[in-house]
């Protein structure tokens, strides 16, 4: 049975687009129009969920008949919430802060059925033990992985960022990259999208 609903990924992230392509289903990636600043009253999981939901909802008027995927990720370490550093200097600071520490990555997912006003939400928690890193190692990593500044905590786990990790505890290894594929498959099947 062909998939009838248009599928929209509310993200300009090429990492998340690559992840979604693994499912071999047609989709369109659209940059969401949504402010990603965390709120002081939120916990890290609440921030991730609100941002994932907000990204999906920001495209609802443009795609009133679509299924829209929104996702976001927040890192949490030593009582501090960490998002995307966006600059090399901030990435260096973040990685020094994370060096040798346990970091929790909260990866949030929303699937919005716009026409039927139905929403599925999930948050995946990934615990990561980071290696102790020297300044030289941090600088070398950021030189080779310039895109790391667009990743939560500057940890681009699908690339050389995997070398920063000593141990990982997760129910879905895809979630650390930013898109919890295992739960997304459940949501798509519930909405009649033939992914299997």
Distance between the termini: 11 Å
Report the sheet-strand fraction. 25-35%
Q: Give the second-level CATH assignment, the architecture.
A: Alpha-Beta Complex
Helix content: 25-40%
- Helices and strands, in order, run as EHEHEEHEEHEH
Query: Which structural class best describes the helix and strand composition?
Result: alpha/beta
Segments where pLDDT lies below 50 for 5+ residues? none
Main beta sheet: 7 strands, mixed
Q: Can you tell me the CATH class?
A: Alpha Beta
Task: State the domain count.
Answer: 1
CATH topology: Maf protein
Number of strands: 7
Mean pLDDT: 91
The number of helices is: 5
Shape estimate: elongated
Radius of gyration, whole Å = 17 Å
GO biological process, one term: nucleotide metabolic process
GO molecular function: nucleoside triphosphate diphosphatase activity
Protein name: 7-methyl-GTP pyrophosphatase
Subcellular location: Cytoplasm
